[in-house]
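Support request from a user on the community tier.

User writes: "When I paste my structure tokens into the form, the page sometimes reloads and wipes my input. The last time it worked, I copied everything first. Here is what I submitted, just in case something in the input itself triggers the reload:"
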């Protein structure tokens, strides 16, 4: 046996205080820091093991529709496959070589009979299988599968994800190529949530869906913790590391299972140490494990771990009931099952739960909350903030380039055939794209690294008449699109045909150092463009066209904001431009003249979080609202505008865009640009459309794209905010 000094009956281990962050494949990494709570120790006595002939067993407790407590045991054995036994004496078996992901009871809100859901990887067929069984008869209700390129680690747990009242299952598999696949398993199919490279060395995993936490046992690094929310940033935190230990097994008891104790409990094992590490928010603990072999205390080399509790609390408790049952809960038994790499035996140990304190004093307010993975959508404070959720009705095809590529949308309204209107979107790594209202790509013009885009209608353009040979006579108008082009610090100008086809007319030079955002308006047939750069400088250019439709620009105004801006939108009816300063707030500018200076209008304050990027205007019940991306919490701030002598903004509330599971469209996060129109575009968009850039396009994981939310949903959300 190889024993590290840390394993010798220590009651508490402390992680190193060093912190670092590195980036690899777009993922952020963080090393552990010292604990920020008062730690409590467990007794340091060695816990005895006994051989368990059943193999690795999952025990599931649940309440049936008659309010009776029931129990199901699921065991996995290399020789016997999977065996399921229930309280009614029924048994279900399947021979084969399987790795169990998880077994759980899924309930619905209608109090129908629960369903036993089992998910496992079949090593013979290289498939992940989902089975739904009737828990009293153990008859198979549904069975379906998804092919997979191997499985180095697989885990699953019940979740409320899915957009229905029925519980589903969340599943994670790390394949043979080091790719992590995250699925939502419904009663009919596997829904891919996201996929990304996780790297080699992952030996097992465990999911706590109550806390959106995924734990990974990495034989090279230790124990990682990740956020399972599919809209979260790809990052992971190293919660345990010892260079002399290879961590191979991990298991977790969610806070729902240990509700009377109030703590999720995660554990891990290493074949280099005959024991188990356990961690909850009160502290971190080690327990040595030995068994009697011919009268001698013998150590083991555990590689896999399963945690269960003998008396889980199955229903939500009032505070009074919770207090009265804590003593009973503390008397519950933690059952630990581990394997032994030397003997190939499965061992079981029982640890009284009163070894783990159910209450601990936090040294600061942050640590008083249960430990969680970093939030996908950071907490929106204060808790009584007006917040309404909507879902996307349509999403566009992903952009061609990977990484941070899609950025800003514009909407061109087809006045003759509104249902044939188009969304114009930037792929800032090399193209300007257009999409129809079903999200299909119509055009992709490789005109450079275009960042922001806007459209203008009825721009006057001179032309030569063939009959008279007149030169410079204005005979018509054209709609145009203008994009800020970072390839050459210019404004790229395009015509928009009556059918919505884009044609590049040319570029207008600017004096900006690093062009970034822009917006435009049309006054008496003349297009006026406001463009900014990353330093905060703004320029206003008026565009003109010769008889051959060659475009030129005249710089008529320049000013600066204190720091980096990007998004802007212009209210042409009232000659007001709203300018976003990403880290500070919203400015207003009178665009009726070339001589006015911007005025600071609305600072960023809770619950709105920087960056302020995309800005759009939308009317509800004849009142105009400004919508701003609150990028820091993946939300959108709504402000009521006031066209008084001194423009004002009144904060109304926040909107978030959640996953539309019925349509297979994910939520929206990390938004840059957005745009909205009240125009009747027909069908689902008869009350307009709101278009939003999605910085994390998942379900499944793909390059970035744009989401379309109906004007009806947006209007209803704003009305709901007004009622809060």
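"...and here is what came back when it finally went through:"
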């Amino acid at each position: 046996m190889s024993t590290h000094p840390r394993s010798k009956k220590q009651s508490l281990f402390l992680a190193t205080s060093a912190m670092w962050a590195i980036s690899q494949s777009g993922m952020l990494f963080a090393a552990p820091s010292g604990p920020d709570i008062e730690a409590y120790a467990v007794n340091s006595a060695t816990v005895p093991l006994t051989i368990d002939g059943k193999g690795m067993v999952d025990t599931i407790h649940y309440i049936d529709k008659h309010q009776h407590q029931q129990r199901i045991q699921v065991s996995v054995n290399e020789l016997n496959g999977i065996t399921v036994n229930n309280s009614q004496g029924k048994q279900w078996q399947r021979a084969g070589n399987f790795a169990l992901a998880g077994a759980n009871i899924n309930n619905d809100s209608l109090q129908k009979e629960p369903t036993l859901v089992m998910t496992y990887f079949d090593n013979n067929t290289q498939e992940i299988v989902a089975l739904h069984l009737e828990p009293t008869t153990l008859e198979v209700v549904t069975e379906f599968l998804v092919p997979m390129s191997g499985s180095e680690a697989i885990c699953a747990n019940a979740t409320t994800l899915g957009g229905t009242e029925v519980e589903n299952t969340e599943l994670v598999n790390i394949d043979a190529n080091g790719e992590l696949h995250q699925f939502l398993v419904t009663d009919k199919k596997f829904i891919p949530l996201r996929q990304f490279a996780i790297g080699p060395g992952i030996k097992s995993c465990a999911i706590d869906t109550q806390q959106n936490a995924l734990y990974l046992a990495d034989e090279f690094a230790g124990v990682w913790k990740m956020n399972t929310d599919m809209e979260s940033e790809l990052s992971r935190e190293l919660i345990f590391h010892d260079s002399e230990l290879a961590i191979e097994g991990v298991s977790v008891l969610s806070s729902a299972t240990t509700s009377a104790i109030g703590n999720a409990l995660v554990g891990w094992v290493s074949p280099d140490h005959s024991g188990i590490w356990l961690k909850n928010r009160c502290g971190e603990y080690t327990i040595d494990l030995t068994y009697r072999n011919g009268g001698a205390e013998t150590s083991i080399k555990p590689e896999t771990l399963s945690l269960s509790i003998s008396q889980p609390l199955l229903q939500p408790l009032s505070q009074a009931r919770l207090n009265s049952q804590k003593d009973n809960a503390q008397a519950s038994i933690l059952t630990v099952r581990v394997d032994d790499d030397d003997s190939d035996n499965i061992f079981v140990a029982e640890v009284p739960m009163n070894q783990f304190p159910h209450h601990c004093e936090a040294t600061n307010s942050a640590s008083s909350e249960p430990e969680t993975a970093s939030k996908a959508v950071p907490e929106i404070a204060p808790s009584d903030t007006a917040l309404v959720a909507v879902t996307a009705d349509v999403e566009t095809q992903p952009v061609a380039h990977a990484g941070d590529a899609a950025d800003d949308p514009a909407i061109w309204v087809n006045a003759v055939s509104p249902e044939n209107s188009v969304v114009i979107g930037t792929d800032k790594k090399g193209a300007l794209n257009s999409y129809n209202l079903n999200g299909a790509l119509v055009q992709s013009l490789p005109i450079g690294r275009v960042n922001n885009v806007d459209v203008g209608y009825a721009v006057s353009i001179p032309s030569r008449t063939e009959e008279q040979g007149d030169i410079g006579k204005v005979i018509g108008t054209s709609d145009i699109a203008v994009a800020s082009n970072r390839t050459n610090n210019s404004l790229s100008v395009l015509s928009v045909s009556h059918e919505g086809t884009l044609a590049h007319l040319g570029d207008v030079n600017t004096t900006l150092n690093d062009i970034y955002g822009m917006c435009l308006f049309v006054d008496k047939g003349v297009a006026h463009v406001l463009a900014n750069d990353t330093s905060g400088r703004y320029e206003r250019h008026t565009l003109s066209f010769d008889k051959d439709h060659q475009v030129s620009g005249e710089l008529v105004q320049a000013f600066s904001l204190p720091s980096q801006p990007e998004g802007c939108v212009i209210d042409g009816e009232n000659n007001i431009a709203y300018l976003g300063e990403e880290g500070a707030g919203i400015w207003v500018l009178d665009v009726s003249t070339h001589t006015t200076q911007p005025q600071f209008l609305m600072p960023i304050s809770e619950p709105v979080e920087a960056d302020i990027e995309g800005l759009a205007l939308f009317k509800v019940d004849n009142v105009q609202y400004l919508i701003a991306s609150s990028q820091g919490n993946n939300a959108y701030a709504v402000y009521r505008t006031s066209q008084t002598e001194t423009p004002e903004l009144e904060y109304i509330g926040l909107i978030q865009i959640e996953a539309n599971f019925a349509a297979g469209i994910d939520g929206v996060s990390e938004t840059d640009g957005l745009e909205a129109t009240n125009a009747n575009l027909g069908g689902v968009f008869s009350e307009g459309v709101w278009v939003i850039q999605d910085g994390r396009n998942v379900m499944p994981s793909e390059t970035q794209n744009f989401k379309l939310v109906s004007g009806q949903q947006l209007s209803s959300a704003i009305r709901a905010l007004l009622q809060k």
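Agent notes: The reload is a front-end session timeout and is unrelated to the input. The first helix runs from residue 319 to 330. Residues 528 and 542 are 5 Å apart (CA to CA). Escalated to web team.
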